[in-house]
């Protein structure tokens, strides 16, 4: 039995908590800080996921064997190195890359150079800073049409601008690199060619040498139906992805996944954890849009329910470098998740709104995201909204359509002021 500490508080972590807690290998299980849903599966600890000292104390107090960072921040800040450099913590498995490996997500310039070194297909690009501002402007002005401007570092999901033309491109570039729109994160900028295609998310767990392929997914990023309006953290997801057929996935494996895993090893970059390949399919060919050093959200809410293996066992095999001994089974059932969000999201929204109806839900999995449990006036505990995205309603089905039909039936049963969700998740399939 292994004592586990999962870091994070979103729908992704709730889905991971649901899965981990089902393992016969899971001993005492903690989530820091967790949400109103994760407390069904383990004990929530009031600790921020970037508070390494508090995480250390909790690991020692509760004799933790495995730490699983959900979000990218602790990984990019070097939680793996923090553990491995501390004699009291270094025996603990951290399911995630070293600080250097997390640069695949933490620095767009790093990931683009890495892809270049290993011939991994991605959009053509150049890297610029304030010193090379004029060259950057010239590069943007070379063509008209859309161009993509990306802050090098983490910018809370806001660091990518798809500019419709060179005028907007130069404007976005200037804000990032000269006006330091995202501070240090945009002191370097990647300017890349716009790829026109359809996106999907592919995930592996790697031990640094071998890897296992998890179910693929597609998320729906825009707030509005028909993929309109501003980007969000994700309004829903489906798995499997119908257009990711065998021929396409073989290309993904041969041209992208294997060169990535081999490339990390060749460059002596310590990486034992999840790799999230944000891909785009252009004329049947896969390209990498981005790497993430963690699982996706809301993709995890459909990927993890379709993973039939014991996740704790996979993590232990990863730690031993023996993922080659594992056969991964993906459920033949489809999964579809619909995200409920707060009114106003992704702009300003209120928190602390009472949510009801959970007990009426039948035949779906509820993965809480921005929720919190409080004791109400009548001394009963109640669930309140505590974020923009509040709840993922996931269902299985024979087809994606069936799965989503079930999710939408149950979405209707959840009630809170300002409830909003997209009514067209999976509409294309
Ligand atoms: P990223 O943070 O790199 O995932 O970018 C955010 C979103 O911008 C992606 O999910 C894509 O929808 C879009 N995007 C990024 N790079 C490109 C590109 N080169 N061509 C087209 N769309 C892109
Ligand atoms: N769903 C995209 C992400 O997790 O970054």
Task: Give descriptors for this structure.
429 residues; alpha+beta; Rossmann fold; Dna Ligase, domain 1; 4 domains; 5-stranded parallel β-sheet; 5-stranded antiparallel β-sheet; 23 strands; binds adenosine monophosphate; binds glycine
Descriptive report:
It is a single chain. With about 425 residues, this protein is α+β, with helices and mostly antiparallel strands. About 25% of the residues lie in helices and about 30% in strands. It is built from twelve helices and 23 strands. A hairpin with a 3-residue loop joins strand 13 and strand 14. Helix 7 runs antiparallel to helix 8. The chain is globular. The two termini are about 40 Å apart. Bound molecules: adenosine monophosphate (AMP) and glycine (GLY). The site of adenosine monophosphate has 12 residues, from strand 7, strand 8 and strand 17.
Short overview:
The chain has 429 residues and is an alpha+beta fold. The protein has helices at residues 11-20, 52-61, 72-76, 79-84, 103-106, 108-117, 133-141, 166-177, 246-266, 300-303, 311-320, 400-411, and strands at residues 2-8, 26-33, 43-44, 66-69, 93-94, 125-129, 147-151, 160-163, 188-193, 198-206, 211-213, 218-219, 222-224, 228-231, 236-239, 273-282, 285-292, 334-341, 354-355, 365-368, 371-375, 381-385, 389-397. It is built from twelve helices and 23 strands.
């Amino acid at each position: 039995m292994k004592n586990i500490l999962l870091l994070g508080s979103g729908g992704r972590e709730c889905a991971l908590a649901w899965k981990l807690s089902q393992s016969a290998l899971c001993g005492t299980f903690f989530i820091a800080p967790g949400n109103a849903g994760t407390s069904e599966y383990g004990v929530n600890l009031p600790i921020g996921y970037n508070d390494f000292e508090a995480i250390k104390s909790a690991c020692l107090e509760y004799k933790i064997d495995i730490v699983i960072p959900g979000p990218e921040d602790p990984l990019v800040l070097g939680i793996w190195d923090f553990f491995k450099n501390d004699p009291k913590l270094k025996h603990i498995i951290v399911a995630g890359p070293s600080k250097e490996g997390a640069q695949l997500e933490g620095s767009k310039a790093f990931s683009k150079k890495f892809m270049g070194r290993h011939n991994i297909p991605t959009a053509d690009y150049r890297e610029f800073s304030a010193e090379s501002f004029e060259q950057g402007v010239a590069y943007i002005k070379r063509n008209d049409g859309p161009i993509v401007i990306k802050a090098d570092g983490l910018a809370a999901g806001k660091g990518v601008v798809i500019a419709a033309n060179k005028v907007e491109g130069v404007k976005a570039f200037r804000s990032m690199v000269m006006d330091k729109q995202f501070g240090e994160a945009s002191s370097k900028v990647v300017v890349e060619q716009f790829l026109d295609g359809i996106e999907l998310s592919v995930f592996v767990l790697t031990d640094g040498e071998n890897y296992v392929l998890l179910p693929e997914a597609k998320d729906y990023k825009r707030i509005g139906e028909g993929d309109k309006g501003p980007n969000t953290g994700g309004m829903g997801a489906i798995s499997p992805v119908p257009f990711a057929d065998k021929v396409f996935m073989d290309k993904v494996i041969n041209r992208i996944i294997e060169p990535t895993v081999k490339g990390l090893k060749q460059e002596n970059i310590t990486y034992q954890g999840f790799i999230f390949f944000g891909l785009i399919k252009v004329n049947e060919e896969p390209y990498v849009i981005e790497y993430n050093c963690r699982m996706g959200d809301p993709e995890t809410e459909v990927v993890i329910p379709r993973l039939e293996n014991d996740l704790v066992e996979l993590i232990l095999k990863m730690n031993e470098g023996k993922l080659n001994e594992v056969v991964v089974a993906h459920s033949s059932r489809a999964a579809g998740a619909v995200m409920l969000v707060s009114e106003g999201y992704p702009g300003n929204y209120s928190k602390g709104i009472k949510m009801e109806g959970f007990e009426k839900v039948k035949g779906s999995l509820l993965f809480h995201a921005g929720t919190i449990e409080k004791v109400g006036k009548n001394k009963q505990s109640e669930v309140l909204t505590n974020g923009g995205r509040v709840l993922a309603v996931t269902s299985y089905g024979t087809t994606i359509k069936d799965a989503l039909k079930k999710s939408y039936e149950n979405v209707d049963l959840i009630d809170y002021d300002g409830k909003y969700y997209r009514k067209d998740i999976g509409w294309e399939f």
